[in-house]
Amino acid sequence: MKESEGFILSELNRAPLAATQQRLFGTNGVRFVPGVSNDLDFAINLGEAIGTFFGSGEILVGQDGRISSPALTNAAISGLLSSGLDVAEAGLVPTPALQYGVKTMGFKGGVMVTASHNPPQYNGLKVSGADGVEIPRLDEQRVEKIYFDRSQNKADWKTIGVARQEPSVIRNYLRGILSRVNAKAIAQRKFVLVMDIGNGAQSGAAPYLVESLGCKVITLNSVVDGSFPGRGPEPTPDTLKDLSAAVKSVGADLGVAYDGDGDRSMFCDENGRVLWGDQSGCLLADFVLEKHPGGTIVTSIASSQAIETVTKRHGAKVLRTRVGSVEIARTILERNAVFGFEENGGCIYQPHIAVRDGGMTTALMLECLAARGMSFSKALSFVVPKFFQAKTKLEVSHKKVEAVMRAAEKQAKGEVERVDGVKVWTDERSWVLVRPSGTEPIVRIFAESDTQEKADQLVKKFARVVKTASA
Ligand code: MG
Predict the structure, then answer these.
(1) Cα 23 to ligand 1 centre (Å)
(2) Is 78 in the active site?
(3) pTM of the complete model
(4) What is the distance in A from the centroid of ligand 1 to the CA of 119?
(5) Active-site annotation holder among 116, 203, 265, 280
(6) Residue 82 counted as domain residue
(7) What is the spatial distance between Cα 52 and Cα 80, in angstroms, rounded to a whole number?
(8) What CATH number does residue 434 fall under?
(9) What is the pLDDT of residues 233-252, one digit of tens each?
């Protein structure tokens, strides 16, 4: 689609990448398996490169509850100090709490030791700028260049950084969220909420948040455990059967589940039906546009067309980006948009901070349901038009990706969008997205239509096209 219809390629989507430059950062931060794909020296050297990139000042460092997080955090801190920067240690906090602390407590930047929703053996580093938002792609490349050129600053005994504890990060985070919602209206509804923390980092924050909002909360998997014994670190409709059953058995108003570092949230309604993030995202977008008339919404090319129906009602604009929360966050900032969401449950409420935030999203959802004055399922059926989705993934070698994209494009009857992969509209209400993964030799196929049968058929048809073109 054309720019005037609300589709853009943001500046960072066009970040030039020298073909020869080696990468460390993936879709969201640096990820690796400590002791297998990298050792602690790597975290020290990367810490030095990050410190050199920031140049001076104090960095807020936090960690999730993974088994390797204390070791990696100490290594990253050593690197930051060695480059001459000072460090404030937040301890075990959700990623959005760390990022909100960076934005509001006067830090030069932030480093979060986390691998988000990845399996337990993974860990990684996420780097935020002074606004708390993940640094743009071009700055990631600057950090990588320092790392690979070995041009890190090495401070001497006089200029080496100092470290201190910063114990108020979660308190500051909860206070920030509470100031953004109508706490009184929420408390009046006396919501009963089941919260599946997935043994992750929201354990010390989200339950206290909803209690402060007058909710009765029942928690599942609430003990922080880096082996993620409950349901694993990634919340999806498949992994949330216990949440769904608990909501039904206690007669709760809703359920919510977080990923390992607490930035993504998936909801289920009072009937225990788990929603994909673009359904809950559309419901919230509608409410946010009521709170902020004239606001702009940002989502990726892979999200449901339901958002266009919702925003049309408000006369609001939708901007579509490449897949990935960094793209969405940076576009929100560039275009001063008010809200963004992804189908994996990452929601960004910009007046609070332009990062995905499971706690803020939960408070917004409670405020939305309080304002609607009806059950979750009713609110959803009133606001969000029903579309059906299907998806699959196929192995495709990097060499064959271009041929596959050309073959997919040839299937188009209507318009084709090339924001990320190839998105083909086959009729007014049906589209297919064929998108290569940035990290694995995989091509993903998403389809959406007005019936499940049509969505399934589209995925099947394009899977055949991809197979033929990659053979
Ligand atoms: Mg996460």
Answers:
(1) 21
(2) no
(3) 0.93
(4) 12
(5) 116
(6) yes
(7) 8
(8) 3.30.310.50
(9) 999 999 999 999 999 999 99
